[in-house]
């Protein structure tokens, strides 16, 4: 979550008149995240989150995200509840930007990741995969290999920056992934963004998952790979085997990995690393001057990629 699109109190007061959420008491920007703008809103009735969508979110996809959250809530999966306005709509527009208001989830991200946190995250992820199996809407992955190539081509054209040494290794890796990426694995709805900022804990117990705006249909094991890279590398990007095995153990509470997924996991981990590496590189090179949040370091994921290029993670799977 973050603030890239600023609104004032008058804008917000007009916006809230369209909802039955009480009167505004206070609001503040949430200074985390990479794309969307988020505000914490306190009213006389409750606490809410206002999300104003950035360029990476296509407004045509918003009904998918809203309906997915409603589907999961009906199945008792803890995620934000979309709030409808007085006209019965969940998606509205402000100054040309689409926005939604969602419920506030209790809890917070953890600052110190433990093996148990990883176990709970894995368990949560397989629960999400299972509970969305009967969700009928489909959305292709807008951050697939073709998109990686597009982002890379744009970054490749930028010449005056400190990350020039990344260009050739990324080019080689993209060629490798194109030749080796799987074509058939168990698939369904994935979250696609299970980073620390998006997972809440309360008293060290999982309390909710937020930020579903990369959710789509793709391989379940690719979602696992994205999550492993986010949760199992710490202390100067060193791989933590116990956290990895805890996460996989938690995942297999609700869904067991098949052998094909285990065999291909290293490829998926490399692709998952490239996906974040490229978007971070892009955000470094084309960061808006007036943005409140500093872009994250792509070198973190370049280090993770180099680990996966050397080690076959299958050796750590039972």
Layout of helices and strands:
Layout: H1 9-16, E1 24-29, E2 37-43, E3 47-52, H2 62-74, E4 92-94, E5 97-103, H3 115-131, H4 145-157, H5 167-180, E6 187-190, E7 199-202, E8 205-209, E9 216-219, H6 220-231, E10 233-234, E11 238-239, H7 241-251, H8 259-285, H9 299-310
Antiparallel strand pairs: 1-2, 2-3, 3-5, 4-5, 6-9, 7-8, 10-11
Helix pairs in contact: 3-6, 3-7, 4-5, 4-8, 5-8, 6-8, 8-9
How far do the termini sit from each other? 36 Å
Tally of contiguous helical segments: 9
Instruction: Provide mean pLDDT, rounded.
Output: 93
CATH superfamily label of the largest domain: Aminoglycoside phosphotransferase (APH), C-terminal lobe
Percent in helix: 25-40%
Global structural class = alpha+beta
Could you describe the largest sheet, including whether it forms a barrel?
5 strands, antiparallel
Strand content: 15-25%
The gross shape turns out to be: globular
Order of helices and strands: HEEEHEEHHHEEEEHEEHHH
Counting structural domains, the number is: 2
CATH topology name of the largest domain: Aminoglycoside 3'-phosphotransferase, Chain: A, domain 2
The CATH class designation of the largest domain is Alpha Beta
- Rg result: 20 Å
Number of DSSP strand runs = 11
Strand order of the largest sheet: 1-2-3-5-4
